[in-house]
Specification:
Number of strands: 4
Largest sheet: 4 strands, antiparallel
Radius of gyration: 15 Å
Structural class: alpha+beta
Oligomer: single chain
InterPro entries: Dimeric_a/b-barrel, DUF1428
Number of domains: 1
CATH topology: Alpha-Beta Plaits
Protein name: DUF1428 domain-containing protein
CATH class: Alpha Beta
Helix content: 25-40%
Organism: Pseudoalteromonas prydzensis
Distance between the termini: 11 Å
Strand content: 25-35%
Length: 117
């Protein structure tokens, strides 16, 4: 079964083009490091919840949009090896390649697939 890295962040809405450019560069590096697929999804219908929500999770502000992203790897071992390579790439150097969003509000996690169809 696949292994998934998932990410949620709040991006200033007026920086969408900059985010897409950044994400496209990162996706190419992820693929070079062994990822099967990289998805970047710009929030379109993301309701605010009563108890919890994507918006609340990243403290999304009025001028921001939630982005939900995931990277699919063939296995946890491939992910561990690939992510180690990815983290060494210049794309991860914040001084050379600043994030187009507040990285302090990025949430992420790694998941073992339990159903795949």
């Amino acid at each position: 079964m696949s292994y998934i890295d998932g990410f949620v962040c709040a991006v200033p809405t007026n920086r969408q083009a900059e985010y897409v450019e950044h994400a496209d560069k990162a996706a190419k590096v992820f693929k070079q490091c062994g990822a099967i697929q990289v998805i970047e999804a710009w929030g379109d219908d993301v309701p605010d919840g009563t108890h919890t929500s994507f918006l609340q999770a990243v403290k999304c502000q009025e001028n921001e949009t939630v982005v939900f992203s995931w990277v699919t790897w063939p296995s946890k071992a491939a992910r561990d090896e690939g992510m180690a390579k990815f983290m060494q790439d210049p794309i991860c150097d914040i001084q050379q390649n600043p994030l187009p969003f507040d990285g302090k509000r990025l949430i992420f996690g790694s998941f073992k697939a339990i159903v795949e169809r």
